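To: structure desk
From: M.T.
Subject: fold request, one chain
Message: Could you run this one when you get a chance? Sequence is below, nothing fancy, just the single chain.
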Amino acid sequence: MTYIKRITMSGFKSFGNRTVSVRLAKGFTCIVGPNGNGKSNVIDALCFALGRMSKKTMRAKSLTDLIFAGTKTQKPASKAEVVITFDNKNKEFPDDSEEYNVARWVKAKGTSGYTIQGKKSTREQLLNVLAQANIDPDGSNQFILQGRIVELTHMNTGQRR
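Reply: Done. Structure tokens follow.
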């Protein structure tokens, strides 16, 4: 079964005009840290790159809200891009390489697009390749968001079932 080896974000939300790469281990991974350090933004980035269409679930009114807006000392980014690198040793994806990359980007002018293995692609092509690897683009079977955890802790046993 494939897993996400790395997520690389450039100009995405609070990460600024820099490239941030987060390595993930095989198996259960939990992103923890103090408030305000970008944990939720990492999940938003994963959902964005997997082709999620609901801007609300990524905490944005429009896709351009995902681009770093700048600060008093830093200029705004002109583009946000997220690349997800999957392990492909078991060849779940239609490629012979041991890593498989999917990416999504949005520019400040509102244009956006996808790439698969560095080549321009469509959302439909992305969804097809994810389906071949049994990956849900909405992340419903991959990600448990912070609010969902709180909700689960307040449910009785019948509601959890």
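Reply (cont.): Strands lie at 4-10, 19-23, 79-87, 99-107, 112-116, 119-121. Let me know if you need anything else for the meeting.
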